[in-house]
Here is the input.
Amino acid sequence: MSAAPDGVSGALPPQLTFRAVALAIVLAMVLAAANTYLGLFAGMTIASAIPAAVVSMAVLGALGGAGILENNIVQTGASAGSSIASGVIFTIPALVILGYWQDFQYAWVLAIAGLGGILGVLFSVPLRRALIVEQKLAFPEGQAAAEVLKAGENPAQGIRILGVAALGGALAKLAAGSGLRLIPDTAASAGFFGKYLAYFGTNLSPALLGVGYIVGLNIGIVVLAGAMISWNIAIPFYVANVLPGNAELMQATAGLTAEDIANTVWSKQIRYLGVGAMLVGGIWALVSLRHSLLSGIRSGLAAARASAAGAVVVHTEEDLPMKWVLVGIVLFTLPLLALYQVIVGTLAVSLPMTIIMIVAGFLFCSVSAYMAGLVGSSNNPVSGITIATILFSAVMLLLMMGPDSEIGPVAAVMIGAVVCCAACIAGDNLQDLKCGYIVGATPWRQQVMLAIGAVSSALVMAPVLNLLADAYGIGIATEAKPNPLAAPQATLMAAVSKGMFGGELPWDMIAIGALIGIAIITLDEILKARGASFRTPVLAVAVGIYLPLELMTPIFLGGLLHHLVDRHLKRRGADAAALERHHRKGLLFAAGMITGEALMGIAIAIPIVSSGSAEVLALPEALRFGEWLGLLVVAGLALLLWRSASGRDPDDVRGGSTTR
Here is the structure.
């Protein structure tokens, strides 16, 4: 069997070194914490391989003797942070929202996230050869990280960009509503035009602007369109025509301002349109991927059989031995069987739960890996996969435990949590292995490093979740914490699992949302048939419907900024290589703003929790400024992002670009 295209010849350079493992563990923990805050806040996480690669090149370069394969190991382990954070925050907060936990139990969170992550690595081992070597899927983040490592672009410049952006994001968060309160968190306006309620607002968050720059204009447009469906169509219609007939909600909104009425109606009714759209989107993800899923599984099993034959292979084709993969799956599944037994108390239910988890885990790890190859990890519909898992699990548990079971919703979420962590890691694993395939790394070393990164990330999840819950609240608004972190996916998982076991949900709104989801899917299929570059992924629209409008506005503006940078560079005559270099700088600046704001959000939570007061850092009222200052702060950071991405670069000339 031949080596990878850029395989390393001669003596094999160091890869899985102590310093690489140590740096990867630190970065994985930091990125897990940052993505936990971001995901609970905005319902999205970001792939972190490129920032991790830049940090690795700078740190290991300063220590001396660093090679491309050692840096690749660092970005492999560090990237597990965002994946584990996604798997946890999409599901585990549902256990608190359901009232099963009062706080996040350390041992349980560690077991679910750590074991789920390890199983994700093991499930995805047989998929590497099928999806990367044979089908040659793109895996865009993996390719981008490989290009950064190969180019060895000035890591000092990359660190400077990350540092400036992180400082800006951190200071903006410190100045905002949960910190010094120099500026508010949002700028919003609402009022009545006749009987119709009009509302518009934007969050003053550099992190959301950065998210928008990373995901691009297409996603920015569709998430904002989803929010406008809720806030600019559904809420005005509901307030004008339905609210007068709802005595309970009419009483709850009596005497409120227009802005508070909009938020109350959205919270009690309209957001469930997003639930219906997400449910349809999760089912559609399975239906639309059925052929790819079967193909991926067949190729994976064929690769496993070939590996078991024991043929001598070059180091660039050495996966973890299949017999140890199978042994590992059994060993790491047994503790989960014990956990499920503790929950339900009967082997007749815990054993089927475990079987469902294994089967769904392998199936959906295959789906996640395939989708990561097609559209990248950032656009991977893992939340839809998890919804489908919880729906299927709930139906099976309903048959075994009955509709009145109080533990049924919890059991369904527990299955979904493990599958979600495994699926997130599987997609990430294949991205990293694609990067390794390009630069000539040894697959089994990357697989081991990703498992270490997954467990390291799992170690910090419960403390970070508890800190954020104590400081801000998660999912459920209370008198003490009226503006909690939204945790949209986890709130949805809780609603779906509870609704299946007789819970009260506004099923009329969910049904209308499902119809909206079908309409969005139909539109997307029409665009696909026409070969349009613009698409309407249903899960992105559904997230927009489900979240406040002010969260989606800066994401759209960040995507618009990305588009404007692209147009500006093309007008200057930049070629493809120059465009990639400039957007990489923009990506680093965006990632820095996200990381800085998220880490400051966690840091601010410490004095809030310690003092028991959300006002502990707040300045006197006389020193607080209005929305105008917040808008100026975000505009200033947007300008710095523009200059970072579009500014003159000496590499444009050296790289052969015609930029002038």
